[in-house]
Design a protein that fits this description.
The complex is a heterodimer. Chain A is built from 4 helices and 5 strands. By secondary structure, chain A is α+β, with helices and mostly antiparallel strands. In chain A, helix 1 runs antiparallel to helix 2. Chain A starts with a strand and ends with a strand. By secondary structure, chain B is α/β, with parallel strands linked by helices. Chain B has a single domain, classed as Transcription Regulator spoIIAA, CATH 3.30.750.24. In chain B, about 50% of the residues lie in helices and about 20% in strands. Chain B has 4 helices and 5 strands. Chain B has a 5-stranded mixed beta sheet, sandwiched between helices. The chains are: A alpha+beta, B alpha/beta. At the A-B interface, helix 1, helix 2 and helix 4 of A face helix 2 and helix 3 of B.
Chain lengths: ~130, ~120
């Protein structure tokens, strides 16, 4: 799904809720995944200048999980390890978006290049 | 754009957030509440978030800033009804909601504001 404006952040949350319910996440797990999606989609819209979210229900042995990828073609992040520090913010946020959403998921991967864009992939297992 | 209604109950303002908040709506609520505190002279603000399924850093910041603005305008803010799953997620996300007072439900929140009010008069 496309993430171009604020309305899409709300749509993204609703989409992730539906997906987490579909694979029967517990309420706490649903809430964590939706919150992470909310933070990451806002990053895509506000800092990445828009982009898209892709989703995939993944299987690993007997484990089922939900994987989300947030990709933009924005300015990229010059210093990723700094950006993952609590309290770091490039804008008007509280500086917990990236670092906080990392704590809400099981797997977290970020690929970014200055001038090319950013792709954050997160997975939460049931 | 939709707006969140603000009700006046005695000396307090009551806000019940029942929709999935878009960022602009959250910002508008902040402005509307500060205007209403000034206009009505309310000394308490009760924000019921029991219908909110998530509180992310944006909404968290909005709650903290409403509570800060209200304090400067001499009003106490109490956030009530946070769902347990939301509380767990908030803490893990790293939001402490510093300076925001909370209560389990509207009834306890109202009692908190009433107690504050009595202390001020004494």
């Amino acid at each position: 799904m496309m993430l171009m404006g604020e309305r899409d952040i709300v749509m993204c949350r609703q989409m992730v809720r539906k997906l987490t319910q579909q694979i029967k996440f517990t309420l706490v797990d649903q809430t964590k995944m939706i919150t992470a999606a909310s933070e990451l989609s806002r990053n895509t819209v506000v800092y990445g200048g828009g982009g898209e979210m892709r989703w995939e229900i993944v299987q690993q042995g007997i484990k089922t999980g939900l994987r989300l990828a947030f990709e933009d073609k924005g300015p990229g992040i010059p210093d990723v390890s700094l950006a993952l520090t609590d309290g770091w913010t490039s804008g008007s946020g509280m500086g917990v978006g990236l670092s906080g959403s990392r704590r809400l998921v099981n797997d977290f991967d970020i690929r970014t290049a200055v001038g090319e864009g950013t792709c954050v992939t997160v997975t939460r297992w049931k | 754009m939709e707006r969140i209604p603000i009700l006046k109950m005695g000396k307090a303002l009551l806000v019940t957030i029942q929709v999935d908040l878009q960022d602009q709506v959250a910002l508008a609520l902040q402005d509307d509440l500060s205007a209403q505190i000034e206009r009505t002279g309310a000394n308490g603000v009760l924000i019921d978030i029991s219908a909110l399924e998530i509180v992310d850093s944006f909404v968290g910041r909005m709650l903290a800033s409403i509570s800060g603005i209200a304090a400067v305008l001499d009003a106490t803010t109490v956030v009530v009804g946070m769902q347990p799953a939301v509380a767990i997620t908030l803490v893990e996300l790293g939001l402490s909601l510093e300076g925001v007072r909370t209560a389990l439900n509207v009834e306890r929140g109202m009692a908190m504001l009433a107690a504050d009010d009595r202390n001020q008069i004494d």
